[in-house]
């Protein structure tokens, strides 16, 4: 009897060992997939405080530390914008660059506008679009100039054949502590860039748009909540939100959708070329996520609004992306 008990125990021990070995192999086989899921769900982004820094306007993405993320390596295109042509103002850097890359990844050819001082950033954006296998052109000029929007649209249609999507994105901002510090010149420049530019570019594009086309405006949380040191900028962003809703009503019967993306703080050249270096270091720290958004985190919202596949029933919306804030809109 003792011998049988030993033999039975040995068999049980061997079976347990084999079972444990199988579980270990299965666990090891699952780990790569688990790591991939973890990397997607817990992406590491730079948090505040960021390096203190300041640039002269208009600010260059190539000089930012850390560089804004725009490549969206985990985003997989699926042809949502195949055969489309998009024009993106301020597309050389920041949100505009990230949107240009994802539009190209979804199959669109892309034209971008930029200031002459931003030519270096624009070249990098063109290379990124072309790396996605799409055609790209850069159009240098100042959107505050009355005739520039018409010229930009003509160049886009001439080079790329048509126009289906407009992204109004170019912006100007400058903090001032009080109303008495805000000059007429700054007020005019902010409005001419942020709202006149949108109005004129939309007017120039409209004859080329058809049923299924889309207009997407870049708004801001400041246009909803205000910002005590951005009186003019906040006013223009509020105007953009109202312009979006009104234009959507105006164009709905033509089948042209108009929407707006209104983000909170985003790491782009706009703020380091505006605020003092130490203020830039704390940029985005007051959000629940304790950091500014990266452009690649904002760009998919523009794809959503541009794509008939995703948003054919959506027009006149202002979508907020606020890093955990839930009280806006």
List keywords for this structure.
329 residues; alpha/beta; 7-stranded parallel sheet; 7 strands; disordered N terminus
Question: Overview of this structure, please?
Answer:
The longest helix has 40 residues, at 2-41. Helix 2 (94-105) links the parallel strand 1 (85-88) and strand 2 (109-114). The protein has helices at residues 2-41, 94-105, 119-131, 148-160, 184-205, 222-225, 231-251, 277-281, 295-306, 308-311, and strands spanning 85-88, 109-114, 136-140, 165-168, 214-218, 257-263, 318-321. Mean pLDDT is 87; it is low at 1-10 and 20-38. It has ten helices and seven strands. It has a seven-stranded parallel beta sheet with strand order 3-2-1-4-5-6-7, sandwiched between helices. By secondary structure, the chain is an alpha/beta fold.
Helix content: 40-55%
Strand and helix order:
HEHEHEHEHEHHEHHHE
Number of helices: 10
Quote the beta fraction. Answer: 5-15%
Total strand segments: 7
Terminal CA distance reads: 80 Å
Shape: globular
């Amino acid at each position: 009897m003792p011998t049988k008990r030993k033999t039975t125990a040995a068999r049980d021990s061997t079976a347990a060992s084999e079972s444990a070995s199988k579980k270990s192999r299965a666990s090891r086989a699952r780990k790569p997939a688990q790591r991939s899921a973890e990397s997607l769900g817990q992406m590491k982004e730079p948090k505040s405080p960021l390096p203190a820094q300041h640039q002269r306007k208009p600010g260059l993405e190539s000089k930012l530390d850390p560089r804004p993320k725009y490549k969206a390596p985990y985003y997989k295109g699926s042809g949502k914008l195949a055969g489309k042509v998009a024009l993106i103002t301020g597309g050389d850097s920041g949100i505009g660059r990230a949107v240009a890359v994802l539009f190209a990844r979804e199959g669109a050819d892309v034209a971008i506008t930029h200031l002459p001082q931003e030519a270096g950033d624009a070249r990098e954006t063109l290379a990124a679009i072309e790396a996605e296998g799409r055609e790209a052109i850069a159009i240098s000029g100042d959107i505050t100039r009355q005739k520039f929007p018409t010229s930009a649209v003509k160049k886009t249609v001439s080079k790329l054949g048509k126009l289906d999507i407009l992204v109004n994105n170019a912006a100007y901002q400058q903090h001032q502590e009080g109303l008495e510090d805000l000059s007429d010149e700054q007020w005019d420049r902010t409005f001419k860039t942020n709202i006149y530019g949108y109005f004129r570019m939309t007017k120039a594009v409209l004859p080329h748009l058809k049923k299924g086309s889309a207009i997407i405006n870049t708004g801001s949380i400041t246009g909803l909540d205000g910002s005590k040191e951005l009186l003019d900028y906040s006013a223009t962003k509020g105007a953009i939100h109202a312009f979006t809703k009104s234009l959507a009503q105006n164009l709905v019967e033509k089948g042209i959708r108009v929407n707006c993306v209104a983000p909170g703080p985003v790491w782009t050249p706009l703020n380091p070329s505006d605020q003092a270096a130490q203020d830039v270091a704390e940029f985005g720290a007051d959000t629940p996520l304790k950091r500014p958004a990266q452009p690649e985190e904002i760009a998919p919202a523009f794809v959503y609004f541009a794509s008939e596949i995703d948003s054919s029933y959506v027009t006149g919306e202002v979508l907020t992306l606020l890093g955990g804030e839930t009280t806006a809109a």
